[in-house]
């Protein structure tokens, strides 16, 4: 029984991750109906893990439960984006400051720096690869800050804005990468003020780019 329970749990986690990736990559656009039977067939699983995955994604804000009909991939309004980015700036500036105060392994930051420089010096990565890297970078800062609650809050907000982040806005690629380098250098230098300022500049620039992108699409 224990082995069966573990297998069911792993299948649910796999289904959650698969649906989440499909939403964050843009494969499932905002407003897409998530019919349990259709997605069970599409993913090759039963309806139970799909139902549980949808419930998880509802709690994350990526899916919205409808009064009638199937749940849908959430639409994020301009006002919601503005609010999310405002809160992200508050939380992630604090996370960057705290990360600079922690004696974390320099090797971790140097790996992020090397990968960022590789992106700048070679062929630009595809949107999904870069979005994954960007997400990992921001989450590493949040985790290094040492607060589980802070990390979880940043993760939730970051996922909601991911489809509008640098991978979706080509003009943000190089500036965003150079802003990442500034954040890394400040953390490596153990300079909390510089880390906080670099993160604030990064979030504010991302906010302006995302809002401009949304307005162009509207």
From TrEMBL:
Keywords (A to Z) from UniProt: DNA-binding, Transcription, Transcription regulation
Every HTH gntR-type domain range: 9-76
Keyword DNA-binding: yes
InterPro entries: GntR_C, TF_FadR/GntR_C, Tscrpt_reg_HTH_GntR, WH-like_DNA-bd_sf, WH_DNA-bd_sf
Domain of life: Bacteria
Pfam family, one: GntR
SMART domains in UniProt: FCD (SM00895), HTH_GNTR (SM00345)
Classification via PANTHER family: TRANSCRIPTIONAL REGULATOR, GNTR FAMILY, TRANSCRIPTIONAL REGULATORY PROTEIN
UniProt name for this protein: GntR family transcriptional regulator
């Amino acid at each position: 029984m224990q082995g069966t329970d573990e297998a069911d749990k792993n299948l649910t986690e796999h289904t959650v991750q698969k649906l989440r990736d499909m939403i964050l990559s843009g494969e499932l656009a905002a407003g897409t109906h998530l019919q349990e039977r259709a997605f069970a067939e599409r993913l090759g699983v039963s309806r139970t893990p799909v139902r549980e995955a949808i419930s998880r994604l509802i709690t994350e804000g990526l899916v919205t439960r409808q009064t009638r009909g199937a749940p849908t991939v959430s639409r994020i309004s301009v006002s919601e984006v503005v609010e999310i980015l405002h809160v992200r700036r508050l939380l992630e500036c604090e996370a960057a400051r705290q990360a600079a105060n922690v004696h974390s392994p320099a090797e971790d930051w140097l790996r992020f720096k090397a990968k960022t420089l590789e992106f700048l010096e070679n062929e630009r990565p595809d949107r999904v690869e870069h979005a994954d890297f960007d997400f990992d970078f921001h989450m590493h800062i949040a985790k290094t800050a040492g607060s589980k609650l802070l990390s979880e809050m940043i993760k939730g907000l970051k996922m909601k804005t991911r489809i509008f982040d640098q991978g979706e806005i080509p003009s943000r690629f190089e500036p965003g990468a150079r802003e990442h380098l500034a954040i890394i250098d400040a953390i490596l230098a153990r300079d909390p003020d510089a880390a906080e300022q670099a993160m604030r500049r990064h979030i504010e620039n991302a906010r302006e780019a995302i809002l401009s992108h949304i307005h162009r699409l509207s």
